[in-house]
Design a protein that fits this description.
By secondary structure, the chain is α/β, with parallel strands linked by helices. It is about 40% helix and about 15% strand. The chain has one domain: NAD(P)-binding Rossmann-like Domain (Rossmann fold).
Length: about 400
């Protein structure tokens, strides 16, 4: 179809289109950074070479896939659920990110396969298994980075919808309206027992376990295979709406699954299952959580002043090319977490955020926080406001891989 000028269109905290060239530039920069960070692997050490990334098109999943492919030359299968372009309607950012990933992988001689499907479904698992059996068997690393607001359970057919709510009592605190930039007070009512159960069904560990079950049943996990899933804990400021709320309940279920899978993989050949607790970053999901965008705006300012801020790509390079580098065992906290949020949770950083929290208002928001950086990070997710892209020029939006 003819090229078109693509201008960002948003509805509330949701961006409803994406810019293909902006997405491609973002991915290329992450690729070049991973290539530059490629570690020397000690003799006899074996880096991950055959990797399945579940939730591979945006955020930490995409960052993981890039770090592993260009950091180690790993062959990767990425799974995600994205909207393709249709007529004048653009594809989602994840679609364009994946198209760029394939283009750069082809250029650099790296194997890449992608599957656009509902990762919760049995059909997606069967399709992935066929690709793995043909091209990747056995898999030595499974990255579980799935983030979805709903799940159709593959065995019951029940549709579960997750919610962002406190448990037990209502929660009131300040938040920011992303459209108006105004700070206001918000009260979130407590979740019902059904809403808690539904959130656990969507964001807990059951599907992660189903994936490992399916791969193991087909003999597609290598001896010593590892798997990692992602979580977030954050500061006490956000706990009522997050760690002590419905999402936190789901994350506790994820932790129980990690312990079960770790024991199982260890017995099967010395493998491991871990949860990496990552730093707060801008995602479409995090932008929707009350309180959190304002917290992140203050956090980014404190971390950037200290030179310790990391985006998703930087953090995943550190995770896979340093913390989980071949021959190394990661340091774990008392709950068996890999703490990639260590820089966020430094006492001096959290003390600065805590001191600014009661002071910040609509009038001084820009002076006390990095809300400008938060906004730019949000636009970057969809390929907008990316340095080096001329948004006045028409671009091809019907892009495939």
């Amino acid at each position: 179809m003819p090229k078109q000028v693509v201008t960002q269109r948003s509805r509330g905290f949701i961006c409803i289109n994406a810019h293909p060239e902006g997405c491609a530039v973002n991915v290329e920069r992450h690729v070049e950074a991973a290539r530059a960070a490629r570690p020397k692997v000690a003799s006899g050490a074996q880096p991950p070479q055959r990797v399945l990334v579940i939730g591979a098109s945006t955020g930490y999943g995409l960052a993981s896939r890039v770090a592993l492919a260009w950091g180690y030359g790993a062959r990767t299968l990425g799974l995600f659920f994205e909207r393709e372009p249709e007529g004048e309607r653009t594809a989602t950012a994840g679609w364009y990110n994946t198209a760029a990933f394939h283009r750069f992988a082809g250029r650099d001689g790296l194997y890449a396969a992608s599957l656009n499907a509902d990762a919760f479904s049995d059909q997606a698992k069967r399709a992935a298994i066929e690709i793995i059996r043909r091209d990747l068997a056995p898999v030595d690393l499974v990255v579980y980075s799935l983030a979805s607001p709903r799940r159709t359970h593959p065995r019951t057919g029940v549709v579960h919808n997750s919610v962002l709510k406190p448990i037990g009592t209502a929660y009131t605190n300040k938040t920011i309206d992303l459209s108006s930039r105004k700070i206001h007070e918000i009260t979130v009512p407590p979740a019902s027992e059904q809403e808690i159960a539904d959130t656990v069904a969507v964001m807990g560990g059951e599907d992660w376990r189903f994936w490992i079950d399916a791969l193991a049943a087909e003999g597609l996990l290598s001896p010593g295979a590892r798997t990692v899933a992602y979580s977030y804990i954050g500061p006490e400021l956000t706990w009522p709406i997050y760690w002590h709320g419905t999402i936190g309940r789901a994350k506790h279920d994820l932790e129980q699954t990690a312990a079960q899978l770790d024991a199982r993989l260890a017995a099967a050949g010395g493998g491991h299952a871990w949860i990496s607790v990552n730093k707060a970053i801008v995602t479409q999901a995090s932008a929707a959580i009350p309180v959190v965008p304002l917290y992140m705006s203050l956090l980014f300012k404190a971390m950037k002043e200290r030179g310790t801020d990391e985006d998703a790509a930087g953090q995943m390079r550190r995770l896979f090319l340093e913390v989980l580098a071949p021959g190394r065992e990661p340091a774990l906290d008392g709950e068996r977490h890999i703490r990639m949020d260590d820089r966020e949770m430094r006492p001096e950083v959290q003390a600065e955020v805590a001191a600014l929290w009661p002071q910040v208002t609509t009038e001084n928001l820009m002076a006390l926080s990095d809300f400008t950086g938060f906004e730019r990070g949000f636009k970057n997710l969809f390929g907008f406001d990316v340095d080096g892209v001329d948004y006045s020029q028409p671009v091809e939006t019907d892009i495939r891989w």
